[in-house]
Amino acid sequence: MIYCFDIGGSYISLGTASTDVAVTGALTRVGRVPTPARDRAAFVQALASLIDQAPGPEDAPVALALAGDIDPATGLASCANIPCLTGTPLVADLTAALGRPVVVGNDAACFVLAEAMVGAARGQDTVFGIILGTGVGGGLVVDGRLVPGAGEWGHGPVVKQVAGDPSVTLARLPCGCGQAGCVDTIGGARGLERLHHALHGVRLDSQALTAAWHAGDRDATRTMDIYVDLVADPLAVVVNAVGAGLVPVGGGLSSDAALVSALDAAVRARILRRTGTPLLVPTGLGGAAGMLGAAILGARWLERNR
C-alpha cells in the first residue's frame, strides 16, 4: 500500500494505491483539506489526519506530488506557494514526524510520469509533458523513468517580441525565478491574462478570455493567436531537443480542447519531425495524474528497498 498525496498551495489531497499502480492506474481517493501554507506544524498535522482516515501497514510509504522542489544536494525544499516548507529538510522532517518512509516528487514531474505509464502517453518511449495551469511546468520521462531536473521549460528569458509582428514588443515581465521574459510569465492562465492586458488594456480572467475567443471576439482572437505563437516557439525547441513522441498537457488551460489543438498545430509546424497525428494531447488522467505519479514513485521506492 502507498499513501499518495497531491499537495498544492490551496489543497492537500490524499489517495491510496497498491504496489502495481504503474500497471493498473488504480487509485482510491481518501479526502482533501485546505493547505496550511504558513504553519509547518499544521501542515504536518494535516497529512497525519488524512493518513488516519485510511489505516494501513505501519511501513506503508508516503509519496508526495509537491508544488515545489527538493534540492538534491542539500535536501532543502523550495515551495513558493507553501512558504512554511521552504528551506526545510522536508523528507527528513516528514519521515520523523509521520514515522513512515517519505518520497517527494515535483507535481509536474509526477503528472508526466503518470501520463507516461497509465495515461495519454502510455506506450511511448519518450514523453515530455507540460502543465499550463496558474503557471507553466513540465517533466521528461524516458523509458518509463523520470529524468531528474528535466522539464522546467517555463524558465529562461525567451519572450521578446511577437513573432510575425515586429511592431509589437512586449515588456519582459519579471518572473518568480528571478529572471524576466520567461515562458512562465505569459504561458499559464495568469500569463495569458497579463498578455491580454498588455495588448488591449483590458483585464479579463482566462476563462472569460477563452470564452470570448470561442465567440469570435476580435481582441480575444488576437491575444490567443499571439499566445499560441509565443508558447509554441520554445515548446517546439524542447520537442526537437528531447525527441518526445507525445506531449500530454495538464493544468487548467488543458481543459480547453481548442487551445490544445491550436498549440498542437503550431508546434507541429515548427518541429523537424513531420507527423499527421496530434503531438500535444489533453491529459488522459485529469486531476488524478499528480497523485498517481506520486503513487508510482512510492511503489518504485518499495521495490528498491525491500
UniProtKB/TrEMBL annotation:
One of its GO terms (molecular function) is kinase activity. Belongs to the ROK (NagC/XylR) family. The chain crosses the membrane at residues 279-302. This is N-acetylglucosamine kinase. Pfam families: ROK (PF00480). Keywords: Kinase, Membrane, Transferase, Transmembrane, Transmembrane helix.
